[in-house]
């Protein structure tokens, strides 16, 4: 739509009324530099667009503002979707201007102003014509705003003390103009929506816009699929959603993709319904009225530039560049942090389980433990501080965006992690216990003194244990992939930490024996330690062929048990 940008196309009555409505009924501002130069317009995007149009029509903002004085203002709000102002003209006439969502304002119009400035009654035919043009504009994703006004008797205007409570009359309006404002889908949004969908994140649009406008925009940015024409409840009006019972809302919440003409409370209702159904909900918003939904959501994302302070305060994350595409980054990094914590836990639990079992079994059976306190301290250091640094700093990978999101009730330690853990821990326990009990014969230490042979055996167990961890640290990087080495050389911190651990381990065994009660090992024993450690790599690959149930182990066992109980005839 190309709006008339020349006031000469209308009669002077119309243009002065339109300009009055634009200049007086606005929360924006126009600044005209005295020494010339570009005119500056401020306000919300909708306000700016309308003021810009006024300027094109030849509006002298300051002059128009002086022509009449404002008696009372009803600020635009998202609930009513209109804003009004009462102005008094020099001839003691009062004009009440309204500006708001087109079809809502149109519904209050009983007449319209024709091209010559004559007031014509709003016949059903004319009403249909206007409604049709609103629909046509909405269908090409224009946001429609109608300007209307009415006359009012100065005598009926409440006195100044009572004016604060004055409810501006909003019926019997005379339609002045309907404008269609293009709010184009920003570059990158379509791709971002696609990425989110691919990652199992459903993008929904809840907007105050007309449902047709909302539908057109949703099609443009890929929230709706152009191949299937959606109907309710995929596409729903805020009013219809609001009218449902709580159960009714929960029943359709999943299917909703676009909600049009919604009030801020509808956003909140949708968030609540989705949360009740067990979904994890993220909400983006900018306005003060978005605050309750941002607060209620699991993750509230406020816009950094256009967002109000209230919205920012109610949110968890502030998107500095106001770009929806940044939401993809949030998902990516969020998943990466979660995955890294899982990797670390898998690694740490393996070490703990193995060390614990080895020492307990040895203590109970032989009364002696192979790993002493200082050695355990060093092992703890490897896995706690260094392990955390190495595994938790893995940068996000594209793979993270190929899998579905983690459910609200999904356990932190997945079945896959338990499987990996058991495979490695069992291997380590088996090897080290065998070494503990028959190590002296296996390592051919029979000729040594008992004391020295014990020390060599224990040092060897300690050294092998540490190497098992060093190699298993690579496995921990990719709990569910067979190739655990992808991208490892790019993670310099990981490589650095593995290197440091290796160097420190050599120093400990070769030079700090007094401290850890170890002895030097010959190169053969070093070699065997490394060989035992490296077996954890192929073992991990083999382990990944073991299938695991999709549901959690606990549920799996409960299910098996109840299935048995439920089918006693088969048991008998
Ligand atoms: N400043 C305004 N003056 C009059 N009407 C407006 C104004 N801003 C928006 N509207 C109308 O109200 C509708 C938007 O209502 P609302 O502010 O509840 O929606 P929203 O989704 O929060 O939109 P926004 O993108 O502006 O944040 C628009 O479709 C438009 O018709
Ligand atoms: Ca808003």
From TrEMBL:
<feature type="transmembrane region" description="Helical">
    <location>
        <begin position="412"/>
        <end position="435"/>
    </location>
</feature>
<dbReference type="GO" id="GO:0005388">
    <property type="term" value="F:P-type calcium transporter activity"/>
</dbReference>
<keyword id="KW-0109">Calcium transport</keyword>
<keyword id="KW-0812">Transmembrane</keyword>
<keyword id="KW-0112">Calmodulin-binding</keyword>
<feature type="transmembrane region" description="Helical">
    <location>
        <begin position="525"/>
        <end position="546"/>
    </location>
</feature>
<feature type="transmembrane region" description="Helical">
    <location>
        <begin position="493"/>
        <end position="513"/>
    </location>
</feature>
<dbReference type="GO" id="GO:0005886">
    <property type="term" value="C:plasma membrane"/>
</dbReference>
<dbReference type="InterPro" id="IPR006068">
    <property type="entry name" value="ATPase_P-typ_cation-transptr_C"/>
</dbReference>
<keyword id="KW-1278">Translocase</keyword>
<dbReference type="Pfam" id="PF13246">
    <property type="entry name" value="Cation_ATPase"/>
</dbReference>
<comment type="similarity">
    <text>Belongs to the cation transport ATPase (P-type) (TC 3.A.3) family. Type IIB subfamily.</text>
</comment>
<keyword id="KW-0406">Ion transport</keyword>
<dbReference type="InterPro" id="IPR023298">
    <property type="entry name" value="ATPase_P-typ_TM_dom_sf"/>
</dbReference>
<dbReference type="InterPro" id="IPR001757">
    <property type="entry name" value="P_typ_ATPase"/>
</dbReference>
<keyword id="KW-0106">Calcium</keyword>
<dbReference type="InterPro" id="IPR023299">
    <property type="entry name" value="ATPase_P-typ_cyto_dom_N"/>
</dbReference>
<dbReference type="Pfam" id="PF00689">
    <property type="entry name" value="Cation_ATPase_C"/>
</dbReference>
<dbReference type="GO" id="GO:0016887">
    <property type="term" value="F:ATP hydrolysis activity"/>
</dbReference>
<keyword id="KW-0479">Metal-binding</keyword>
<dbReference type="InterPro" id="IPR036412">
    <property type="entry name" value="HAD-like_sf"/>
</dbReference>
<dbReference type="GO" id="GO:0046872">
    <property type="term" value="F:metal ion binding"/>
</dbReference>
<keyword id="KW-0460">Magnesium</keyword>
<dbReference type="InterPro" id="IPR023214">
    <property type="entry name" value="HAD_sf"/>
</dbReference>
<keyword id="KW-0813">Transport</keyword>
<feature type="domain" description="Cation-transporting P-type ATPase C-terminal">
    <location>
        <begin position="369"/>
        <end position="545"/>
    </location>
</feature>
<dbReference type="InterPro" id="IPR006408">
    <property type="entry name" value="P-type_ATPase_IIB"/>
</dbReference>
<keyword id="KW-0547">Nucleotide-binding</keyword>
<keyword id="KW-0472">Membrane</keyword>
<dbReference type="GO" id="GO:0012505">
    <property type="term" value="C:endomembrane system"/>
</dbReference>
<dbReference type="GO" id="GO:0005524">
    <property type="term" value="F:ATP binding"/>
</dbReference>
<dbReference type="GO" id="GO:0005516">
    <property type="term" value="F:calmodulin binding"/>
</dbReference>
<keyword id="KW-0067">ATP-binding</keyword>
<comment type="function">
    <text>Catalyzes the hydrolysis of ATP coupled with the transport of calcium.</text>
</comment>
<protein>
    <recommendedName>
        <fullName>Calcium-transporting ATPase</fullName>
        <ecNumber>7.2.2.10</ecNumber>
    </recommendedName>
</protein>
<keyword id="KW-1133">Transmembrane helix</keyword>
């Amino acid at each position: 739509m190309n709006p008339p940008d020349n006031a000469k196309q209308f009669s002077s009555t119309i243009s002065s009324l339109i300009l009055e409505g634009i200049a007086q009924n606005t929360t924006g501002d126009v600044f005209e530099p005295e020494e010339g130069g570009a005119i500056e317009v401020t306000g919300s995007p909708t306000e700016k667009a309308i003021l810009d149009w006024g300027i094109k029509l030849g509006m002298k903002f300051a002059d128009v503002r002086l022509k009449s004085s404002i008696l009372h203002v009803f600020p635009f709000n998202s609930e009513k979707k209109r804003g009004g102002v009462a102005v008094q003209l020099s001839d003691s006439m009062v004009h009440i201007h309204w500006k708001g969502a087109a079809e809502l304002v149109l519904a209050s119009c009983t007449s319209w102003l024709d091209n010559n400035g004559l007031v014509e009654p709003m016949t059903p035919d004319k009403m249909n014509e206007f409604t049709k043009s609103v629909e046509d504009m909405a269908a090409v994703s224009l946001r429609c705003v109608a300007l209307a006004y009415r006359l009012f008797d100065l005598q009926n205007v409440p006195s100044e003390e009572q004016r604060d409570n004055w409810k501006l009359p909003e019926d019997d309006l005379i339609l002045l103009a309907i404008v269609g404002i293009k709010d184009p889908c920003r570059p990158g949004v379509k791709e971002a929506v696609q990425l989110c969908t691919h990652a199992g994140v459903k993008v929904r649009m809840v907007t105050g816009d007309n449902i047709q406008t909302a539908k057109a925009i949703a099609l443009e940015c890929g929230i709706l699929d152009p191949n299937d024409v959606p109907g309710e409840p995929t596409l729903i009006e805020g009013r219809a959603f609001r009218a449902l019972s709580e159960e009714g809302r929960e029943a359709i919440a999943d299917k909703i993709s676009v909600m049009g003409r919604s009030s801020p409370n509808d956003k909140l209702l949708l968030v609540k319904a989705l949360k009740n159904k067990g979904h994890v909900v993220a909400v983006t918003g900018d306005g003060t009225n978005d605050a309750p939904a941002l607060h209620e959501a699991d993750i509230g994302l406020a816009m950094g530039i256009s967002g109000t302070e209230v919205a920012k305060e109610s949110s968890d994350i502030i998107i500095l560049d106001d770009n929806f595409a940044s939401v993809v980054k949030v998902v990516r990094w969020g998943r990466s942090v979660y995955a890294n914590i899982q990797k670390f836990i898998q690694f740490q639990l393996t070490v703990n389980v193995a060390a614990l079992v080895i020492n307990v079994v040895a203590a109970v059976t032989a009364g002696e433990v192979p790993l002493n306190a200082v050695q355990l301290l060093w092992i703890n250091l490897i896995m706690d501080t260094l392990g955390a640094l190495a595994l938790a700093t893995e940068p996000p990978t594209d793979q993270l965006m190929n899998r579905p999101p983690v459910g609200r009730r999904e356990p932190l330690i997945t079945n896959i992690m338990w499987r990996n853990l058991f495979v490695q821990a069992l291997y380590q326990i088996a090897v080290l216990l065998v070494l503990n009990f028959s190590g002296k014969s296996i390592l051919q230490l029979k000729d040594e003194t008992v004391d020295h042979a014990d020390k060599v055996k224990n040092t060897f167990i300690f050294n092998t244990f540490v190497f098992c961890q060093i190699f298993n640290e690579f496995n921990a990087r990719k709990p569910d992939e067979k190739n655990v080495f992808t991208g490892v050389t790019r993670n310099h911190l990981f490589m650095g930490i593995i290197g440091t651990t290796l160097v420190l381990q050599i120093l400990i065994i070769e030079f700090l024996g007094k401290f850890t009660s170890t002895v030097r090992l010959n190169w053969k024993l070093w070699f065997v330690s490394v060989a035992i450690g490296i077996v954890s790599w192929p073992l991990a690959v083999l382990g990944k062929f073991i299938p695991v149930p999709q549901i959690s182990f606990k549920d799996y066992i409960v299910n098996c048990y109840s299935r048995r109980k439920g089918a006693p005839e088969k048991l008998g």
